[in-house]
Design goal:
The structure is a homotetramer of 352-residue chains.
Chain A (H helix, E strand, L loop, with lengths): L5 E6 L4 H10 L5 E7 L9 H4 L10 H4 L3 E2 L10 E4 L3 H13 L3 E4 L24 H9 L4 E4 L3 H16 L2 E10 L11 H4 L10 H12 L2 E3 L2 E3 L4 E8 L6 E9 L5 H9 L18 E3 L8 H4 L8 E8 L5 E7 L3 H17 L5
Parallel strand pairs in A: 1-2, 1-4, 2-3, 4-5, 5-6, 7-10, 12-13
Antiparallel strand pairs in A: 7-11, 8-9, 11-14, 13-14
Chain lengths: 352, 352, 352, 352
């Protein structure tokens, strides 16, 4: 890397994922935030005033006084932006940046289903960055849009990837217990979730049944062939601040021993090109032996929130294996994932 | 019923299920609590002092001053006891009562797996009371032991029963989100569950994978032929006071429409002999149409806590149907279920 | 009372206090809800659809299909309305009803500070209904506006009233721990209160420092002379569904024994005219002896949520007595209080 | 400091404060944990197995395999121990270590009231270490016992100290909202605190009414003259993981402006000898201007959990000032405070 940091912007920095971008980019070795954007009625106000900060880590000092800019490529002149835009806004704003030559690393779902836009996890499918030149050619862009997956998909997809590479995974039952921060801010009303579970999250089940298939799919002729994998999802909201837990039952190509599965997960490594980047999870997957782990409060910050934690691997009476998977929804499943994506783009010289 | 109420005892009345027995039996039209028992070091003390009452409904006045007796048939002379004993204690104490001619309606798991002891749900398998004469003959008892199921099994089994009768159920994926009161008192430490989920409950998954098969099984030659049904369970503890929620995916004998499934569940009725008893759930199953229901805080007290609430019925990409099932764990799933069992025994003249 | 019930309306019935009005008025012996109002964009829609019901008790069947009306005296023709309007809307809408001859029993703070509008608690100051004729004369109304106090003031004021009558109360330190339902719906964002306390509630401390002084004041020449009592308040929001807890230190006219204080509170009775009404609290004050009570979850529903619960009475090293006071914020402190007010108005023939 | 670290032991390392000692001493620049002790039935077992770790930060690797020793000076040969012993055990065990020449920095309350044992906060009363020679002479010890205060007293006492030095503080009303971790492990049962507040903590109010007076007192003839300050305390347990919040009303020697109070608190510095130690809080007091701060979840980790956070400074209608004070109960109020004490003892050459 050059000694000089790459100037970056954060789109929609006042929301809950936007805040996480600001917090994680503080002291990033490669990137320096020089612009942050917010809704139109807040433009020009300092971030410290305009933002209702909800993270336990204090707002970085440099962000306090940074004025909010408009979310347009004219307003902020940088080669790379991180987008925490809501999906409807992202539909138009992100292409405008890509058109203007900016690499957009996005947490929004708006473009995930486009055939030439990758849903990227560097520890899973770094080869999918091959869609960037396709995208540029298709759309006449000099920039690009690269998305990270839905927050629940992140840990789930890494886990399936490791077992799929080693054995083959055919079907997956998934029940998620998702944290409050996944709903943004203000998100869930306290009276709705207090002493309660909400067994429904709008549009979530559809995403989690589809996105892993794209991430695990093979590139063919400039688009992704969906992986031959069937997934059934039940999504629940629970009263946990951060950390999405997934109960997972897997049908494999063949039965394997619990120890063997643990070994496969424990030794899974990111592809070479995705290793040794600043946000590379260390380890990619942590396997726990205790009978009652992982747990969100105790394990969500493993590997600085980038590690996927798997435990309770055991035989399943219907399929082959049961297990519990945890990953941090606003770090590995959102802002941290997008930063890791950007690092991969830099390494592949796809930015600027 | 006779005008005079049947005198009953509550074994281990100071625990969380024991308290629920005391609360639900207050003003019961058929039963009158005349004795309550507690651990040996508390015998003779008034219940109001010896018991750390954790229910929101106040302790009934008559219970306040009732002294704790020893858990032996000599100490309490009644034809019927409700047992909230821990499983290890139940192993010996309950047979002693049955031997002495007492009908034991038990919430303990100790005897559930015995071939001649029914796991009884009057709205599911009232015919299993035919095991009572078998049990008496086998063991030379004049009393009997009749158990209710594990708390998580209750709503689940009714739901499967209705669909099994109508269509046939072959396989079930079950992920439970279980309430704190299911762990007894003191149960789960607050620091363990606060801002957290615990994806493990000791011995729970085994029970929920097996007990429904016994309850749904056919009586043959004085024992139960387990139902031909495979179940896979993931059990989780969540920060909810009462009400166990289950995410359920079912493989049926054939695909049916969501509306048809809703109709089957909504119109399910208890067998005739189990209807119109004081604790008969009204309705047995409540089907909800809202996209985000049932929820524990809002729906656990439907039908005074005896009704099973089912919602979010929708197609499952792997099996046939997904749905969410809620039932109150200390009412329908424990004390209320045992009282309903006792009512059935009275109606069948199997008590006293 | 006449055999025929008085037809009533509920203004702003879709909010959290409005829902409580609907729930508490179900099967009320004197009142029958014939109209409910909501925000303009929802008019005409059935309540069951337009309202996000957040109470654990199910919505009454009659309310499900009742269409929402506009909040104007033309739209709903009744002699009595209960108002759960937000304060800004109440400022204009409530006088329009009073002008049209309707008795308005209001939970809004908009008119509480008007000299001719009583803040009424029948068990404390039923004589303040003497402001109704004053109000009618001042304003040329044939109806009237009668308010209940801020939710935190309710239990606090009854407690002070009892001790003030018996001994005299000079100064009060008050720290409240207030429930989520007090903030309305959606109210507090879950991510703000989860694993947290918010030591601030907008405008709350001012109200609680002033309203008890008006309720405890003497009527003189058609207005209230504020009671000579100084109050200091710290208001906090905590993660509790219902029930406002108050830590209270009192400086009395003279020191009294703890037992004497307990006796005074325990034997406090509502003035004769306020007794034996449908919503009269039974008892008005419940005194608890246990060292760790009252607690919101266990004690908020005493006396159907209308009773004030006091415990932990003990000497105070600075003033004279410390104690803990609990009352249900949306029942005694809001909707239930307003219904009790209306019952008093009916008894005094001030309605219709 | 010398290049070689001082070997230290942690007594009762498996409890919740003991775990915090282990976590905070990881990589401490001066101290190296070489021994940890636990209850007799666990002796010899590795800490990683014997300890139910409840902190979100993972257990340090070196601690996992360290075997538990007996809590006697024979079993562990170090010049300094940190004690997380329960008070009853501390009564005998801590003097045995002091007798054997060991400096005991204790979190237990057992010896706090002894006239020759300091309750030490380096940023408040470092001169109270003058009791160490007195203690040695009185008791014939070559070691010593130095205690930190009750967890609730810590932030409270620093706040009062700053205002007392500048203006004079005469009376304090204190209502605490205390976190779950303050109750140790297993501590509070989840069913007791879920959806609830417990307005009682055994022996807590007495401690908080007395300990600040000792810490703020003057040394005279080898003992502490209690500060002339009256305190009234109401203690509450709330559902927060960490961080004790205090609502505080102060009677000063004279009224001062809110701005002046903020300036006094904001500029308060530790005495010279207590500055620049590894655990010196930076800053000692953080004053917040936002209307709704401090809040436990957002502010408890300021200054790595050693800073006291004060906000909502405003006039009090009865006394002079109201404010809200937050400090981390297991860091500044327990283990971190004891480590800071030990650093002061090292600097004053009172160890070893």
């Amino acid at each position: 890397m050059s000694v000089e940091k790459i100037p970056v912007g954060v789109l929609a920095a006042t929301g809950s994922v936007g805040q996480r971008f600001v917090q994680l980019l503080d002291r990033h070795p490669w990137f320096k935030v020089v612009a942050i954007t917010g809704s139109n009625r807040k433009i020009g106000r300092p971030y410290g005033e305009a933002c209702h900060w909800v993270l336990a880590d204090p707002m970085p000092a440099w962000a306090q006084s940074m004025p909010l800019s408009e979310s347009t490529p004219d307003a902020i002149d940088v080669p790379l932006v991180f987008s925490a835009l809501p999906s409807t806004a992202a539909a138009d704003i992100e292409p405008a940046f890509a058109q203007a030559g900016v690499a957009v690393c996005s947490n929004a779902s708006a473009h995930r289903s486009a055939p030439d836009v990758p849903i990227l996890m560097p520890e899973v499918n770094p080869d999918h960055t091959a869609l960037v030149p396709v995208q540029r050619q298709n759309r006449g862009w000099s920039g690009c849009i690269v998305t990270n997956s839905n927050c629940t998909c992140a840990g789930l997809t890494v886990t399936i990837k490791a077992l799929n590479d080693a054995i083959g995974v055919r079907r997956a039952f998934v029940v998620s217990l998702q944290a409050l921060s996944g709903a943004g801010y203000p998100g869930v009303a306290s009276i709705d979730i207090h002493d309660n579970v909400i067994p429904y999250i709008a549009s979530e089940e559809e995403k989690v049944e589809w996105e892993p298939r794209k991430m695990l799919g093979a590139l063919e002729n400039g688009s992704v062939q969906l992986a031959d994998l069937q997934i059934s999802v039940h999504a629940n909201r629970v009263a946990v601040s951060d950390g999405h837990l997934v109960c997972l039952s897997l049908e494999l190509a063949e039965q394997i021993a619990v120890d063997e599965a643990a070994r496969i997960l424990d030794t899974y490594e990111a592809p070479d090109i995705s290793q040794s980047l600043p946000f590379t999870p260390e380890p990619v997957i942590l396997v726990q032996d205790e009978p009652d782990r992982p747990q969100p409060r105790l394990d969500r910050l493993r590997g600085s929130g980038m590690t996927t934690v798997v435990g309770r691997i055991r035989p399943d009476p219907l399929f082959h294996l049961k297990m519990v998977v945890l990953s941090h929804n606003t770090i590995r499943g959102a802002a941290g994932g997008s930063i890791y994506n950007a690092e991969l783009l830099v390494k592949q010289e796809l930015i600027g």
